[in-house]
Batch of 2 targets.
Target 1
Amino acid sequence: MAKKVGVLTGGGDCPGLNPAIRGAVMRGLDFGYEMVGLVEGWRGLMEMKTTPLSLEVVDGIISQGGTILGSSRTNPFKSEDTAKVAGENFKKLGLDALIAIGGDDTLGAANKLFKAGFNTVGVPKTMDNDLSCTDYTFGFDSAVSVAVDAIDRLRDTARSHRRIIVVEVMGRHAGWVALWSGIASDADWILIPEVPADMNAMCAHLKGLGNRGKQWGIVVVSEGVVLDPNQADGIEKDDFGNIAHLAGQDLAKTIADYVKQATGIDTRHAVLGHIVRGGSPTIFDRVLGTRVGVKAAEMVEAGDWGKMAALQGNDVVAVPLDKAVGVSKTVPPELYDLAKIFFK
Ligand code: F6P
């Protein structure tokens, strides 16, 4: 009988998920597997909601943003009871293996399932690019590309009106999205969670731009920047204990108000939010999603359980989930130093 292999996408969606699903399914079909999608991430396992993943279903999805399987932030290991249901349903669905595509939370759950004795492999994804043991995750390049396009537009209007515009981007507690989009869009200052915000130095610099005839500026800030240690108090958490809506803290507005007050320059703010998570994946993300999806199916064939398909250098390799989950990959100081060269 054909092996039955489940595929799910969990956590925040991002461009590249459909190429990864397609890669896993196409390679799985080579091995004669019956491929089946679990609908809406781990919720699909908890509620036994599945959908067939045939060649016809995945054909042509490489250019589509989002995920054809749907996603959720359901945590199957929220309690002992839910963990038990997850294991039981794995058996009831007759799954021989599961490919879990997701970020730290989804892959953490996949690792627990593996440790509970179930055949599981992981595929890393996140627009935040904060997963350890992989150089890049798909979703990041697409998100940064959209952010840079938006910042280029904001720069036009900032220049016309002689304004400063503070642009907030997502990225959770890692500054990759802010740093990459700030460097690529010639930002005048970038604020990331890894580096304490020096508001005085930033405002002095922004004010000083006028000395070289530049009366406008762009500041890119990551949603994870902490100005006030109490700013997250009382904020709703998700199933995995993360702040449910980091972007809902008025960070960009707070910074814009501060800049206006400190510099006397008219200042506006824009929160890009989920806009950067939609749209067609970039070529980089289509190819990376495809490669890691294919690798995941090959890991199933090899019985390489409890690992994820990671990009290291130019190779896609299997690395233990144990090493990858639980430790966030943050921006190293030397990359922020690179950005600072351009704060002139
Ligand atoms: O982890 C991806 C991400 O887009 C983060 O950058 C952001 O903080 C979070 O998801 C937003 O989550 P949600 O879509 O649940 O609002």
Target 2
Amino acid sequence: MHSRRALLYMPGDDRRKIEKATTLGVDCICMDLEDGVAASRKQEARAVIAQAMRELDFGNAERCIRINSIGSGWEEEDLSSALASGPDTIVVPKVETPEQVKWVSERIAAYEQQSGLPLGKIRMLIGVETALGILNLKEIAGADSRLEAIIFGAEDFAASIGATRTPEATEVLYARSAVVVACAANSLQAIDMVYVDFRDIEGLRREAEAGARLGFSGKQTIHPNQIAPVQEAFTPDEAAIAHALRIVETFEAHLAQGKGAYALDGIMVDMPLFKAAQNVLARARAAGKI
Ligand code: COA
Ligand code: MG
């Protein structure tokens, strides 16, 4: 799967920001047709994205286009115009039912077939960011094999349940963890909420590290200055990699001697810690650190 430590949004009608995004070394570039674009500018944004897709070199970044939500009235035109521009990935916001996932995936499949593309080539990411979406996560996460990640939207979710956003984010902890669990059960990546105070890099770093500890594989970003701290937070550092390697080596050696549990530096190591160490190494490998 494509590494998705940071996913950077920019309004689809802002050519300058799309150009800038291609120079930043970000894992995923997400050109937005949804909430970052005014209702009066949707048509313009579709055209700007199509032209940018033709003219710009996105390097290794994943080229994502976020359409408007199913039922907005814009989704059909967004999707056909996005597909025609040849994206890697379609992002669907505010998903609430498995049928919505299947509806988009079937349209993508029809496009792939008619364009002679391999079936399943175009990937799909979805936003779950409403009360109903969180309740239906189990069915949504398993709805379609095209799905690679679920993105949690905290601002929309807080609005949908009548919560007030706080820096501690306890009001969205249940939903964040629900997304991580549904993703883990279906081998999907989980992408954490936006940190809207984009001048506060220390706060961003803390929130990104907390998200990584909860089990997220990446985080949404809205400004160039957010990319490095977020991508670092989702990449294991040297000490974490060394420690994980040591656990894997010693665990396998003890297992060969018939021991499932042992002490390492005064800490008990057994199967769950071994699995956690393997997760760290998988992340390090995905980030090209080993
Ligand atoms: N993607 C790419 N480049 C961006 C960017 C983004 N999301 N946000 C800012 N930049 C660029 C600016 O164009 C500017 O580049 P320049 O000096 O070469 O023109 C530079 O980074 C510095 O920008 P800055 O002046 O600090 O920000 P701003 O006040 O122009 O914009 C926001 C602030 C929040 C409006 C802007 O960051 C933004 O549009 N973010 C994305 C919003 C969005 O897509 N929301 C929907 C999804 S949640
Ligand atoms: Mg949202």
